[in-house]
Design a protein that fits this description.
Layout (H helix, E strand, L loop, with lengths): L4 H31 L4 E14 L2 E16 L5 E9 L5 E3 L1 H6 L8 E3 L4 E7 H13 L6 E8 L4 E9 H6 L6
């Protein structure tokens, strides 16, 4: 039996070319999928300060929770809802807070690429959330912030804080 080397190298070359084309297609598709993603960074911090009006301090100290959103992806994001998740998947919606808070944003809210916006929520609302969590027996759970966009994507942020933190500092809120 005599091996036809021209036929062998043609077949080998065809197979290698096919593998290169499939690999290139997979790389391009994967790269497009990774680079064209929506990404939202969420931060939460406690702020204390004095109330000011027209540059004059009123003297009243206020406690607020600042939730900051930053679009770190390369696509526009429109946030429709904000909620706080429990570990079993149930949640406490915070949409009603937006109308009552001092805010830089309201929902729905659109974020262009690299745009940041913040939501300032009165500390008393977190105390109410902690009281609600206590009623459900979930004081020892970590607070998880979930923002949802118009395509039902969820962006989660684990705060590292427990509901107990706010429950222990509760005051009489009416």
């Amino acid at each position: 039996m005599c091996l036809d080397w021209d036929l062998f190298w043609n077949a080998f070359s065809s197979i290698v070319t096919l593998i290169a084309v499939v690999t290139a297609f997979v790389i391009v598709r994967y790269d497009h999928k990774i680079s064209n993603r929506k990404k939202l960074k969420i931060e939460m911090k406690h702020m204390t300060g004095q109330v000011t009006y027209d540059g004059f301090r009123e003297g009243r100290i206020v406690d607020n929770i600042l939730i900051k959103f930053v679009n770190i992806g390369n696509r526009k994001i429109i946030i429709e809802g904000l909620k706080f998740m429990f570990t079993d998947g149930s949640s406490q919606s915070f949409i009603y807070l937006l109308a009552e808070s001092d805010q830089d944003m309201s929902l729905p809210c659109s974020f262009e690429i690299e745009e940041a916006k913040q939501l300032v929520i009165p500390y008393s609302h977190f105390v109410r959330l902690a009281v609600h969590a206590e009623g459900l027996g979930r004081l020892d759970e970590e607070i998880v912030i979930v923002a949802t966009d118009t395509t039902d994507n969820e962006y989660r942020h684990k705060t590292g804080l427990k509901y107990k933190t706010y429950y222990e500092e509760k005051t009489e809120i009416k």
